[in-house]
Amino acid sequence: MSVSNNVKKVLIADDEPDILEIIQYNLQTEGYEVITAKNGNEAIDLAKKFQPDLIILDIMMPGKNGIEVCNILRLQPAFNDTLIIFLTALSDEGTEVKGLETGADDFITKPVSPKVLVSKVNALFRRVSKEDTGLLQIGDLQIDREKYIINYQGKDIILARKEFELLALLAGKPGKVFLRNEILNQVWGTEVIVGDRTIDVHIRKIRQKLNMDCITTVKGVGYKFEM
């Protein structure tokens, strides 16, 4: 396969050969450069050599499981911006929370059709591309993170700084569930101590100012942005 410099690189790690083959074929057909690993240890080695833009991890793998692989890679600065998707047959809430806590960008439950998986991968890369410009556009909502400007349906909306940062964080990854601790760390920082109700108050104000219920509470887990 001839690969140009702007082709995105994807690493797939799964111990089921049939799944590796079908995902690899569909992603290559879409134009991605793809490499595969059959276990967690191999995934870590190939990730360091291959430096992929996206890693798709099965959770139940020999050697090291997907959660362990994600943890190890996220501790290394080289993988701070690497996209990670968990693709697993485990569908319980506890497993999903663990996956998100390790820094995964998405959690997809098997079985999933190849077309749906490819569409999710494409959407993830489109989202990151928009983030790089500093301008988020979701439907009628526009968020300019460089100028701290919110525009909804043609009208500018004034948000307090932390309200803006909270909205930009959630809207930057529509559908992703952000854990409460993750939000506190990214918006308020680890050195600032705030009460448990701080996020709730800010989200309520955002909903009121935008006049729409765009932030969904995921009970016992966190919050996600949905238009």
What features would you highlight for this structure?
227 residues, Arc Repressor Mutant, subunit A, 2 domains, 8 helices, Rossmann fold, alpha/beta, single chain, four-stranded antiparallel β-sheet, disordered N terminus, five-stranded parallel β-sheet
Tell me the structural class. alpha/beta
Name the overall outline: globular
Radius of gyration in whole Å, from Cα?
A: 19 Å
**CATH topology group of the largest domain:** Rossmann fold
Count of beta strands: 12
Based on the coordinates given, report the CATH architecture of the largest domain: 3-Layer(aba) Sandwich
CATH superfamily of the largest domain: Response regulator
Terminal Cα span? 39 Å
SSE arrangement:
Blueprint: E1 9-13, H1 17-29, E2 33-37, H2 40-50, E3 54-57, H3 66-74, E4 83-88, H4 93-101, E5 106-109, H5 114-133, E6 135-138, E7 141-144, E8 149-152, E9 155-157, H6 161-171, E10 178-179, H7 180-188, H8 197-210, E11 215-218, E12 222-225
Parallel strand pairs: 1-2, 1-3, 3-4, 4-5
Antiparallel strand pairs: 6-7, 7-8, 8-9, 10-12, 11-12
Helix pairs in contact: 1-5, 2-3, 6-7, 6-8
